[in-house]
Description:
By secondary structure, this protein is α/β, with parallel strands linked by helices. The chain is built from 8 helices and 8 strands; from the N terminus they run ββαααααβαβαβαβββ. The chain has 2 domains: 144 residues, 3-Layer(aba) Sandwich (Rossmann fold); 78 residues, Transcription Termination Factor Rho, Rna-binding Domain, Chain A, Domain 1. The strands form 2 sheets. The chain has a 6-stranded parallel sheet, sandwiched between helices. It has a two-stranded parallel sheet with strand order 1-8. The chain is globular, with a radius of gyration of 18 Å. 33% of the residues are buried.
Amino acid sequence: MNAAHVTGVRAVLTDIEGTTSSIAFVKDVLFPYARERLPRFVETHRSNAEVARWLDATARVAGIDDPHSRRVIDTLLRWIDEDRKATPLKALQGMIWKAGYEAGDYRAHVYPEVPAKLREWKARGLKLYVYSSGSVAAQKLFFGHTDAGDLASLFDGWFDTEAGGKRERGSYLRIAEAIGLAPPTVVFLSDIGAELEAAHGAGMQAIQLCRPPEQCPPAGVHPCVADFDAITIA
């Protein structure tokens, strides 16, 4: 099995889907849950200032004059179907998912080796951060309600698309600046090659997760491993 060994690392920045957790959980559980409940949620929470903010933002992006128009809801549903990484959608989905987590309708999936490895790195003094296209609120809910218990307290910070797109070099520069570390002292973990390229372009170290490992590129630029146990940080 492939292994990855990195040195000089002071912080781990990790993606979620396909990295710490199954893409299927998000695709087959969270997305349908939010899609089914979104129209009623919007109609019953329009007076909420935060909801109104994101409905206004959706209308602006979609070129809709009236944020109360049914077209705003239709736009959000279309974005779900298109898997658009739109910040207003992610924020509203996060609010809906919060209710689902709190009601015990589901628990977030994490791969079995991930919790122990995160705790090991944390105990060694490494800083742990999340960077996902899902909103920061959704990230905190996710790790606060996993099938391995509450893991949210292990993380030192959270980043979403407000830091920039995950395939943009500048996003990783902004994250490094925000956490006060030089990029080479940060290792970014993701299953997506283009994200790793952007992080590497910003000076970060990068490791690709491929589950199963047979999906590792045959001549990949970055180390590619099957799970967190194959990663050694010195």
